[in-house]
Amino acid sequence: MNITGNTIFIPGATSGIGLALALRLREKGNTVVVGGRRTELLEQIAADHPGIDAVRIDTTDPESIRETATKVLAAHPDLNVLVTMAGIMGVEDWTTSDGFLAHAEATVTTNLLGPIRLIAAYIEHLRSRPDATILTVSSGLAFAPLAVTPSYNATKAAVHMLSESLRLQLADTNVKVLELEPPSVATDLMPGQRDSSFAMPLDDFVSEVVGLIETQPAAKEIQVERVKFLRYGEIRGDYDQVVASLNQLDPHGKE
Question: 136 is in which domain, residue-wise?
Answer without folding.
Answer: 7-246
